[in-house]
Amino acid sequence: MEIGSLVFDGMDQLDFTGPFEVLVRLPGSTYRSYSPTGAAVRDARGLTIVPDAAIADAPALDVLHVPGGGGVDALMENPEVLAWLRKQSGGFVLSVCTGALLLGAAGLLRGRRATTHWASVHLLPEFGAEFVDERVVVDGDWFFAAGVTSGIDGALLLVARLHGDAVAQRIQLYMQYAPEPPFNAGTPATAPAAVLAAARADMAEVTRRRLETVRRIVSAHAHS
To answer: N or C: which end of the chain has fewer CB within 10 A?
Structure first.
């Protein structure tokens, strides 16, 4: 089984490394990462990640893993990356955070049930998807994880689909993945109102620009 992750400048590294910790342990599989050009990338906070190869050199993937992060805004208008996503989306797909928007820009979300980071869920219908307010949304062979840390959950569910619950549970145990967050502030529904307001204010400009990008892409698709 060939498993491949897209990595790119400005991504959230945990969107990549969380599922990596799970999927790299799949028995009988090969796991590789691919950047648009094959060059090293820097995540949103400056961490350097060296991919295995360029997307052009990837084999046909059985599992495609698409992280998110601020860097998706540029990639949503990158025709080579979007064409690659369309080409590689025939098997299982794991989208994490705003990686879902990349799939939407590639025209792959229409009619699907999906989720993404809470600050971008309103963009899913722009791409013809139905937003489902769950930490992980499964639509056939496509697994959509909400924000950042939920990629671990999505990857474990994907492993369970491929190899059964026991294999997924052994990987979970090895990782000692038993989160007990110190605060109940991990979703808009549970975060204190002041915390949520501050977070929305912090992201307001990014959210505005992203909406403009998405509507430009959708308009271009409608007139192509």
So the answer is: C
